[in-house]
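ERR on first pass: missing label on line 2. Operator R.T. fixed the label and resubmitted. Corrected input:
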Amino acid sequence: MQTKVKKILVANRGEIAVRVIRACKELGIPVVAVYSEPDRKSLHVQLADEAVFIGPPPPLESYLNMDAIMDAARKTGCDAVHPGYGFLAENDSFAGLLEKEGLTFIGPPSSVIRSMGSKLEARAIMKKAGVPIIPGLLEGSENAGEIIEAAGKIDGAMFIKASAGGGGKGMRFVLDRKNLPALVREAIGEAKSAFGNGTVYIEEAIENPRHIEFQVLADNHGNVIHLFERECSIQRRHQKVLEETPSTALDDKLREKMGRTAVKAAQAAGYRNAGTVEFMLGGDGKFYFLEMNTRIQVEHPITEMTTGIDLVKWQMRIAGGEALAFEQADIARRGHAIECRIYAEDTDNNFIPSCGVIARLQEPRGPGIRNDSGVYQGWEVNPHYDPILSKLVAWGEDREAARRKMILALDEYVIHGIKTSIELHKKILENRMFIEGNTYTDFFARCKDDLFQAGKKEVPDEAFIAAVLHNMLDSSPAVQPNARARLSPWQEIGRWEIGTGGGV
Amino acid sequence: MEFTFIIDDVEKSVTVEKKNDVYVFSIGEREYVVSASPLANGTLTFFIDNRSYIAVVSQGEAGTSIGLNGRNFLVRGEEDAGSMGASHGSGHGDGSVESPMPGNIVAVNVSEGDHVKSGEALLVIESMKMQNEITAPLDGRILKVGCSVGDQVNFGDVLVEIEPA
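pass 2 clean. output:
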């Protein structure tokens, strides 16, 4: 039986490192940050009890550098490592290395990360356990001819997927069968270069799909519960943009059925700690296991806001051998929560990343508002890592209250110096499709004319009045960012359009 | 007093007159009666009739940013606007494709002598884990490819030169 963890190293950066560090401090557990060269002055380094330098900017040499992280843990006397999400969070070799060295990995056992990391193996485990899987092939292949032949048995549109896949890599949508051979070869090539494993398989395409996931918690004493769903259908380039709970697509009967299935899936996987079971929900109300995420999710705060359970703190407790203090029947939902992922990117310009110094930062406030942020005024957003700046969460008594609260919070949120997704989030929340709860995975494609604006924008007279008043009254404070403000490319080279091919 | 500003590429001329405690603005056909007070924290509050506005103002090298009702505006004066126009010409019109972001080159799809159409993918830059396709701004022939796979590039580095067709 494990004992309580005594000192935790957080093998991550940005907002999730900040979130985990705060949870450790609340629990009274000493916490150590690690950082790469450009993160020397980052928020997570400031908040931790100790911080260890682990290497140069490229992730492979720092946040993915297992040896450097192991050294940091040994040097500081840590007995546990929290991986956050991304980086080493779903790397079974890293979890295995910690197990071998006698340190606690705050997450599931390495064997579970490995089996769930292989989509084909996960499908086989779920099928055996009676969890519905998306109809399609159970065997994969690196041989294009075999896959093309096997695809003959499948009706209608389909997806080619990489067994080792993630983030849309090695994935292709096939609508017209005459493109199948070329797409299979592309997918195999991409999977090979991205994962070193070219094995692909085929799944039928689900019509009007929604992406619904269930949060689960499993302790080391055989208790497994779910904490209801998160609706994550609004995505771009297979990355989630906005999440909410509860989902407008579920009634209580379906919710209960999916929740029970999620628990069954976690049990079949031999799961421990906090995890997420992802489902595809079709327009016909049928749902299918998609994959299991063996980590804390980016969007975990909306579950915390509606259930009142601190998932990150429970991760530490479970890792330390504690049993869950509640049963399924004790878990209740209250109200509605929405999360907007605030990214540093130019949403009107094909989402190209936006780097630079945050010249001004004013965060929204008010009851029911939570902002999990990893940045501060004067911080320079660099090109090496994920562009997430913060996760803005609004809780309301019902969906409409949460939606209105979020719009007000976005209005109050000021970030100067870089481009952000704040305005895009407002447009999503004000879109009729969203208001009516019609959130499908093709939301962006369906609503693109309402959400994106090419060329000149309307600028209201009020903005000119503010500019003149500022000029006459000189209201600017002496804002001195830490680093020299770098000209953004829009100032250096004028308007750019990427992927659309148009001129100005 | 008269001001001409360019905000997010929209140019407007504004005349303003101080009358007792208020300012009277004229923009195009419209007139606004405004009272204003700057706050010490770089925030400007003003009223148009009785409607209250809060503008968050900050000064960066790129110009003045104004946050108003959840939108950010970038303000440039007339002089800035002139230089902006010039750099715009050199960066875009003549077929010199510069990097719009720092990142790593992960794919180069063209080589010297190739003919490309406007909108055709030239190369892919990876930045912040995202792959960004850089496309041809115009039809033409590739004169020079200034980068190869694995290169680290910065803002404004010339990636490809295209001779306009």
